[in-house]
What does this fold into?
Amino acid sequence: MERHPYRPGLSGIIATETEISQVQDGLTYRGYPIDELAKEALFIEVAYLLLHGELPSHEQLADFQTLLVESGSLPQPVIATVQAIPSHIDMMEVIRTGVSLLAHFDPQMEYGMFMSEVSNTQYMLAMLPQLIAYRYHQVNRSTPVEPNFHHSYAGSFWYMLKGDEPSQLEEEAFNAALIMYADYGLAPSTFAARVVASTGSPLYSAVCSAIGSINGQLHCSSGAGVLDALQEAMYSGNAEDWVCQEITKGKRVLGFESSSHKGRDPRSTVLKAYCSQLASALGQTEMETAADTIEDMMGKIQKVHPRVEWHASRLLHYLGFEPELFTPIFTVSRLVGWVAHIIEQTENNHLYQPLSRYVGMDQRKYKPLPLRS
It folds into this structure.
């Protein structure tokens, strides 16, 4: 047996121990099943749970909410920078730049050091929806909406993006989506955050590294592509024939696991239920029918389950969000998971230093160039 076996992508390697979430026996946050949290809790309660380890009391939740309200509006220099970024630049690139800028205006920063990761996170939780909403309205030449955190967090985020009030079902579905996104074990973006944190780098640096990772096509940015594929299947007139043709051509159907060895994503059941409710309420059952057909065929032919974005992209579509907002919305939610892992990493730190295996040229002798006359 090799002394140091090579595992591409560190597949199967246990890199750390965590008390935050586990995905082996159904997704739980700090021991609470995700489906119970999605049905009963507010996103801000789950944020508190992930950051502090326990669900908040009424007083603790009120204090947490008050800090969001008192964080104020986007700093003017951040607004000026966002305005100066060309409109064709991807929203996630703007978010990465904006979060880096926000570090300089965080009121919890003193003498060049951040005083509290949780307080910094509350500041980012207040600023990120404003940053996304401001950029969205700027690019679409619509009137920016004043921030308002007097609703639930999901309702406030909705209001900043849309300028109206969600229905009860819409708010419940959006709240559930934010909860579902908040953490998922050692996902690539979470691992990136922990690696940077392990070096002793500041919180905002670790968060920016996670944002860079989550913008990758193989991590979270395929949601818009999933929706495109589903609409293509619908327009073809026969979703079953469409998926069979895609498989025959050797194409990857976006939104499904690449391996038949992976189990069903525990978030799928809750998101699929909300998709069904929203589709019925909106009269868009044709898309749900096509999605169910494709899911059944992929299970029968390739023995694979849908990834979370298979359902999440439809849910956000039914809620009226443009595809360009899918990953930014994910980012707001996952922020609390990243910071929970960053805190856990720094409390029991170990610098990540994996090995690499050299497969280049054998040792060679250097031959000096001949001297020119």
